[in-house]
């Protein structure tokens, strides 16, 4: 796996291939201050609640590490409660700015496009209070932010760097049963952002390829930067036994864990069905299996938050499935440590940060072979990748872990080693390289923009 920012170039009908590392002459400097946009989810919200998830973790960790290498970050996000301070210092060199746009409570992500004008107004008001040239670059996350970023970058005369995180065309090609397709307005919005961006950051080579294939992105503008993991927080620590003792879990149990938002896209139902299939075949395992589901409903799961509870009852596994509300990052690390295996049967993952987080604690991963998960998980070394979402296939792997408990430790040790190559410091340094390239290229083209 490349340790570097990878640049893409077109190679005829075969798609894209990595080219050399981006190299910059010494005269090029990093931006001093970046306006980071996260319209629909605040970096201050707890992952696993509402629409907060991996992207929140990504923005918080990236911003902290950028600040540590002297790139100041101001994160603009929508205010979701009254009385929030306009500005919060998240860390030295990282500010979160709350923008009033629409009602605080009860506004679904699907309703946010109607509030983008109000959000843009708030961003422009903040900018108007600064001297010219306050921001050197705009980095937008997800398509809603990209729409605002497009306008802000043009107005301020600075480059736009955009990270999709997920893409409508990719999600719609792999919809879970009962999930709602992404609307045409999002596809149009994403297409506009791809065209307007100076640089696009993809989590994996596959995502870079999807940007080129589905959105006709210029391969020269797409850079691959793997997300990282907080290797100080997600550690093997004092081990599985101690974590189980703290969480009140039996020492000798098989513990397949689901951690994430409860929505069709993440497919927690596949795990529940797999456990039911396993117990139908091996009823003696019932006394030594515990299945924690850590997370809250979100997205299209909000309409039917009790559906997973009902499914567990219908399949006769309510006694082994334990529903846990979302937890903070420190306690999440303990859940990962305690688990025998993290199960991620998702229909789509741009990367799957929790897969790396779990592996960093010494826990193997059983995941669908989608999106960035084949990069995050080394098949048959740090876990298992499954093609498709057939519960019986997941049940077979769970049976392997039940019959060969040593697999948890041997794969877990390999997983912890693998995760160590995904530090946020590296991700931030590579992101800063992308910023530098975008600023340099933007300056080169300024005369023609104003000519």
From TrEMBL:
Residues binding Mg(2+), per UniProt: 336-337, 339, 363
Domain Glycosyl transferase family as annotated: residue spans: 242-416
GO molecular function, one term: D-inositol-3-phosphate glycosyltransferase activity
Keyword Protein transport attributed: no
EC number: 2.4.1.250
InterPro entries: Glyco_trans_1 (IPR001296), Glyco_trans_4-like_N (IPR028098), Mycothiol_biosynthesis_MshA (IPR017814)
SUPFAM superfamilies linked: UDP-Glycosyltransferase/glycogen phosphorylase
Pfam families xref list: Glyco_trans_4_4, Glycos_transf_1
Family, as annotated: Belongs to the glycosyltransferase group 1 family. MshA subfamily.
Quaternary structure and partners: Homodimer.
Protein name per the record: D-inositol-3-phosphate glycosyltransferase
Source organism (scientific name): Streptomyces beihaiensis
Gene: mshA
